[in-house]
Write a structure and sequence with these properties.
- It holds the Pfam family A24_N_bact.
- GO terms for molecular function: aspartic-type endopeptidase activity; methyltransferase activity.
- One of its GO terms (biological process) is methylation.
- Keywords: Cell inner membrane, Cell membrane, Hydrolase, Membrane, Methyltransferase, Multifunctional enzyme, Protease, Transferase, Transmembrane, Transmembrane helix.
- This is Prepilin leader peptidase/N-methyltransferase.
- By secondary structure, this protein is mainly α.
- The N and C termini lie far apart (about 50 Å).
- The chain has a domain at about 5-130.
- It is built from seven helices and no strands.
- Helices cover about 65% and strands about 0% of the residues.
- The longest helix is centred in the first third of the chain and has 41 residues, at about 10-50.
- The chain is flat and about 65 Å long.
């Protein structure tokens, strides 16, 4: 059984383990990045339909998207992604960046996100060390990777990630896990006010709502 002492005395084992785990996390982040905005749009449409009191037959009928359903498929041919085709980075290299069924190209962004997640995770552990604080720091890093790509793709920052992250940060740092509470509190205030200022500046200049 691998213990914490083994990680402390064998750095390569620690970094190898972090790399493998974070590659898998990166694969999951790809799912979050792709599906969470679609889930949000579905929820908004349902809320609008309910607000307008549209009859059932006028409402758009489609399968509800979650992070686990439906199963991942090729967007070109609908081929179901099998387990061996979903190994982080390795599967993309083995398949030469193409669907196993129709040979349509698979975006390189998937292995890139997995690799970036692994690199950031290893750097986090190298800086903080193998301790409890590092686990919370990794959760922050993984969340920021997902938020960055979602923001780049859709200009959305999902509340389902940002709000829990903010409250988790405040609670953790109340106990001094990553920094002192005053720094965490005023950091949250500064972050909110900066986005709030951009929102109102954009609205004053363009007359439109934006972030």
């Amino acid at each position: 059984m691998i213990t914490l002492d083994a990680f402390l005395t064998t750095p390569w084992l620690l970094f190898l383990s972090v790399t493998l785990v974070s590659l898998c996390i990166g694969s999951f982040l790809n799912v979050v990045i792709l599906r969470l905005p679609k889930m949000m749009h579905q929820d908004w449409r349902c809320q609008c339909e309910e607000f307008l009191e549209l009859p059932e037959k006028q409402r758009k009928q489609e399968e509800r998207i979650t992070l686990s359903k439906p199963a991942s498929t090729c967007p070109s041919c609908g081929h179901g992604i099998r387990a061996w085709e979903n190994i982080p980075v390795v599967s993309w290299l083995v398949l030469r960046g193409k669907c196993a069924s129709c040979k349509a190209p698979i975006s390189p962004r998937y292995p890139i996100i997995e690799t970036v997640t692994a690199i950031f995770s290893v750097v986090t552990i190298a800086v903080i060390g193998p301790n409890e604080s590092a686990l919370w720091a990794l959760l922050l890093v993984w969340s920021l990777v997902a938020l960055t790509v979602i923001d780049f793709d859709t200009q959305l920052l999902p509340d389902s990630i940002t709000l829990p992250l903010m409250w988790l940060g405040l609670v953790l740092n109340y106990f001094g896990v990553l920094t002192d509470f005053n720094s965490a509190f005023w950091g949250a205030v500064a972050g909110y006010l900066s986005l709030w200022s951009v929102y109102w500046l954009f609205k004053l200049v363009t007359g439109k709502e934006g972030m």
